[in-house]
Amino acid sequence: MNKKKTTVVKLMVSFVLALVLCLGTAAPAFASDDFSTGRNGNDAEAAITKILTIPAGMVTPVKDYVFTFEAKTVNGEDATSYNMPDISNRTIQIKTDSPSTIDAGGNKVVTVQSGNIFAGVVWPHAGEYVYEVREDGGSDPGYTYSQAMYEFHIFVENKNGKLEVVAISAYKKINDDGSPDNSGEKTNPTPDGGSPGSTVSDVKYNNSYTGTIGGTDPEEPGAHVLRIGKMVVGGYADETKYFSFELTMNVPNAGAGSTYRAFVVEKDGDNKYKVVTGEKNYEGSLGSGSSIPVSATGTTCTFYLKHGQELVFIDLPLGTKCTVAENVDARYSPKAVKHIVNENGVPDNGSVGVNDIQGNKLTVGPFFISEAVSPAPSTVNYTNTFGVISPTGVSVDNLPFVMLIVFALVALTGYVVFRTRRTAAKAGK
Question: Do 129 and 204 share a domain, yes or no?
Fold first, then answer.
């Protein structure tokens, strides 16, 4: 009996040892939702995705983004110059025509995916290789660079007499803002769609750009970012009359209470301007008499212009959304000529007129402050036409209609006289 028990115990121990050995030598199983895996003897591939968020209406800047690889371990051993290959930097270029979408906040989101970042790497032997991948950020004005770091695990096996990359996984260790990511979750680096529904690698580095264009001197035309002009035409048009305008602006990422200053200017010789300090221009605003603070967060500002004057901005951020409207005077026929980039990001050099008046306002916009305006700056020029009055009190604008009426009356009178005489002649016979 004891001998029988001993035999059973030995068999159980042998089974457990065999199971442990099998588990210890079995190749790891890779779930496709978490890893990039090889297919049909081809190496697994990995890509990274570069995302740039810029103001809507802005031309996508051409720029190279560089990524560095730091060797960490292979099979748990620290990297050396001979046990891990040195992987050179990879570059992703964003171009003006790179694919983009508009996000919920109205920003333009440009997305570009790399090729296989481990293409051409010669692995010295089988094992699990670990690399840290970062973006080599810069200090270019207006840019916020990603501080994210991903840890890549590359699994290389001996297969059919050669080395094969059977799987690649990635773990996000540092977020874009530099804070640690302690989730421990895998990120799928598969090119053209890591997770279900995705069309790019889930390894993403997010950058943003907010630029300001313009200058510092409102009297220099080259410093202007936006001009809103006023003209009147007609022999009896009042060139001293001030017309009322409303302007609404939304500046990207503007904080509460933020404002941008606008200046009223007039032409002062060839290609030169002077700032106007007339009190009427600043009526209804908080202006100091030399500039107008315009809300950056959508509060409407009222300003006044007379013939030959313009409201100009010199330092607006790209992507600022603007809407301007003139309060129409019934004695004038208004027209506004545009040289802008509309809310769809398309240059617009058209015009609006009397048929576009709504609620007694002739409105242009919304439109964006954009580098796509050529030549700069963005402009909206309002021209009001006053009907010319003749000394006889008859408007020359109405003269054709008056003459038609006169001719009709003369013809009718002649016909009546003719009929009367003819009737009288018949009666005398």
Answer: yes
β-strand partners of 384: 232, 334
E-assigned strands of 56-198? Answer: 63-74, 77-78, 90-94, 100-102, 107-113, 127-135, 143-144, 149-159, 162-174, 186-187
Range of the domain at 72: 31-209
385: exposed, middle or buried (Cβ count in 10 Å: 0-12, 13-18, 19+): middle
% pLDDT > 70, the chain: 80
Over 80: is that where the pLDDT of 411 sits?
A: no
DSSP, collapsed to helix, strand or coil, labels residue 419 as: helix
**51 domain-assigned:** yes
- Ramachandran angles phi, psi of 189, nearest 5°: -95, 10
Report how many domains make up the chain. Answer: 2
pLDDT at 59 (0 to 100):
81
Q: Among 51-60, 100-109, 395-404, name the one with the lowest average pLDDT.
A: 395-404
**Domain assignment of residue 6, yes or no:** no
Give exposure, 325-359, as e/b (b: 16+ Cβ within 10 Å).
bbebbeebbbbbbbbbbbbebeeeeeebeeeebee
Same domain for 200 and 234?
no
CA dist 187 to 153, 172, 177, Å? 11, 7, 18
